[in-house]
What we know:
It is a single chain. By secondary structure, the protein is mainly alpha-helical. The protein has 10 helices and 3 strands. The protein has helices at residues 2-9, 20-29, 48-57, 74-80, 93-104, 112-115, 130-140, 145-152, 156-170, 175-184, and strands at residues 36-39, 63-67, 85-88. The protein starts with a helix and ends with a helix.
Amino acid sequence: MLRSYLEAEGGFEAVTVADLPAALERLAAETRFDLVLLDYAMPGMHGFAGLERAIAAASGTPVALMSGLAPAGVAQKVLAAGAAGYFPKTLPARSVVNAIRFMAAGETYMPLDMMRQPTGTESTDSGLTPREREVLALLCEGLANKEIARDLDLREPTIKLHVKTICRKLGARNRTHAAMLARERALC
């Protein structure tokens, strides 16, 4: 979808690949890219390790990262790794186009509100208690409340309360979003 939008804007020729290995292969075959844009959750990415591999393979071509989720500190880590920028997928379409133009021109981009987020020196567990971390780990495994209650020898209403508290502390909309955030933040 992003490719279609960029090409409709004019002045863009976008090439897409399915996963990080395909992107690295394409970078090895061609060196005429103005910008390499990766998705933090793309297959084979493995978080920051994938970003570092792409930066090394890009031979000086700017590499940027986007993500559907914007956990605290990710933007700063991306820039510290040497990326040309970072933006969440929730950024308005016009801003995405401007950010891509900016980074392709050799500048660094990060939304202002990302700069105000914690830098990662704060606790990465968002203040979760040990029990909440246990529940979160089982959420990440895809277990239902009943299964989590059985595994932890607790009652289901207690698990529901823990899930609600976890969602609030992580800023998640629901249990699935909490698990996604936890994976991005390396909490499970």
